[in-house]
Amino acid sequence: MEIRETHKNGYTISTDKDKLDISCIHKFLSNEADWSKGIPISTLKTSIENSLNFGLYYNNEQIGYARIISDYSTIAYLGDVFVLEAYRGNGLSKWLMGEIMEHPNLQNLRRWILLTDTADWLYKKFGFKQLPHPELYMEKHNPKVYKAVKN
Question: What are the residue boundaries of the N-acetyltransferase domain, all occurrences included (predicted)?
């Protein structure tokens, strides 16, 4: 897939996996994100390898991240979205979401999925809604899985 990059006021959003600062992403996801506390770095690396990644940078330093899991024809799952606290409040998450939603390989999908208990105000701006029929939704969820995995 073609690497995409956009720039604005010293900030960059890039889909280039080689630019990702794995230690920065791991530090945030394993220590600060409720949804992935304790994620082993090997698990993170595998998730990155099998996803469409969006790195957010300021002067080439990683300050944010998001990833998409998709078949690029019918469905996409948006996950691991974050902007480091020191950079929040500058419209960067909105810009990051815009770049994700406008990516040419993610157009005309039947369904987008997102699980979140934070920043729903942001995702609503991009068309995400609460489930209209939650009784149809099923999941198999193991929030303690990373406690059993060795780094």
Answer: 11-143
